[in-house]
Amino acid sequence: MALPSGARALPAPAAVARRTLADRDDVLARLLLAPALVYVIALVGVPFVLAIVLSFSSATAGSLELSWVGLRNFLAILPDPQFHRALWNTLIFTLVSQALVIVLAVTAAHVLQAAFLGRRAVRFLLLLPWAAPVSLATMAWTWIFDSTFSVVNWTLRFLRLTQDWYYWFGDPTLAMIAIITVHVWRMFPFATVVTLAGLTALPHEITEAAVVDGASFWRRLLEINLPLLLPIVTVAVLFGVVFTSTDLGVVYLLTRGGPYNSTHVLASLAFQRGILGANLGQGAAVALFLLPVLVVVAAGMLRTARRAEVGT
Hints:
By secondary structure, this protein is mainly alpha-helical. The protein has helices at 25-55, 72-77, 81-113, 119-131, 134-144, 151-158, 172-200, 204-212, 217-245, 249-254, 266-276, 280-288, 291-307. It contains 13 helices and no strands. The longest helix is centred in the first third of the chain and has 33 residues, at 81-113. It is globular and about 70 Å long.
């Protein structure tokens, strides 16, 4: 129908812009998270569920039979003295090494924050223990603590600190000291980097105001830096506790649980019972024993970190 004279034609409706994938946040988020989710389910979730199933079964290596035995595997390890020793070693190993790691990391972070010649080189060298393969590093430490060629013994004698000759892998206490030493050497670079990142992010105005007010280094450290660093340090401790209490590499490569099975931790004992001893059910039960404790520790530390966040 023709328009009456003098009437204007209505403008054409604007074309609706087509939404791309980048505009759909919900779909894009699911696509980006999908590979990580598949990875976690395949490499963490499935073995974890399998370990739970094995711990309630009579599964053995080399057999496809899987019969339900209830709590028999857990009841079998509870009165075992070797399990008690491994549990005690795990607690000592975790607590002592993490205390040393945090003290060394906070100290190193404050040193590396200062300006001095060669700071970049020192930071690079600091990361080497963390980046070095654990098997290669443990071989070197095995030579350092060797009963015949021990560099530690020769150094102590040269400095006239002792005239005794220590058999590091022949005595349970010395063997645990060697294990903790190597683990601290491996872990403290990562904790130092995390602490240094948190230290760099602290508000400079607070520290400068404390310096103007005449606060000493120790007062700034104890009353300003450490309280502000608490959320970062808590995350580093949480990572360290979980990693240390479940670590198998250093203990097995350095002492293989010896001498006389006296340096086993729960992870190495689970490997010995489940893989070397072919008792998969009991090995899985040993491995799962610390899980409830770690869950409680993780929840408590995350709660502490959330409460200590700046501005809350």
